[in-house]
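User: Fold this; tokens only.

Assistant: Input:
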Amino acid sequence: MELSFMSCMPRTQDESSHPSADLAGLDEVWDARSKVTLIHCFRDEPNIWNVNVVYRSDSERRQALNEAWRRIEQRMTAMGFNFDLQQLKKKMKQLRDQFSRENKMFEDHSSKWQFYEEMRFLNQDEEQSSGFPVERSSFSSGPPLTVSPIIIANHFQGKGDSMLFDSRLNAADGHSLSLDVGVKSEEFEHEGEVCPRHGSEGSGAMVSSSGIILSELAMDELLRLVLSRKGILLSDTCDEETKNRSWRAIHDSMRAVTQQLPPVDELKEVFRRKQLHLSDIVCRHAKADVSSAHGFARYIQSIVNKCLPEDQFSIRERELGASILRKSFCPQEVRPL
């Protein structure tokens, strides 16, 4: 019996064991998938959490925060999660409080809490001192791997959501891989816009042959679902009908992340291009060690190519894969050495 990745996620340190465990009523609607989606949406709004964002006045700060939470609510609704604004804020506060407790309990960042890796972007000092690239705010004019103080007043007025997609971030386009055919703004109120941000944050998104855009979150889920079924989908011995059933199951599971899905054949093609994209990164950084972002990309590619036995690829590694691979796709990671 096939299970999706999210249904078999490890619960070595379940939230219910912590003081901030959800009330029973909310646990029925807040599952792991909805929490991860909220965390991703929150991460994409640095106005809320980035300590380097500076406002000229309290009114500007309130306006920016209100706009950011409005976008989060719209994105969650567009992905099928029907929580109101207060529920979203309350859940995010619970998650942040738990993350803070995990940091205090595990000063070496060895926490096994289910959502710890997804929320490590909040450890901004760690991000700047680590070997991983810093996830940059779209407002920042600083160089890669730094987060400089940000004054957003001039950007905020008159630009609306488009300020999230500053053209300055296209500087890396010359180094982009041709396999990234285009990336759409993830703000759902601009459904018709396609923004070719090949090298910027969010460049994990891809476009199907019929023009349907799969967001970074959707591509993360596709990668996890395929790898969780790699024994079937990447096997030379499984028959095509068995593989097709697995692909149809993946297609159905993807609807929990996005309502706009290409047909199954196009989904296969999108994964193939993502596989080639990853392979290209691996080829450019063949000497990277396995603990680095590059090395982890090479490790995942080895799994995809069936070079490692099944017992060396755990559920926990699948869980961490999307987070670390996302950092592998930053502009500085895809440039030749």
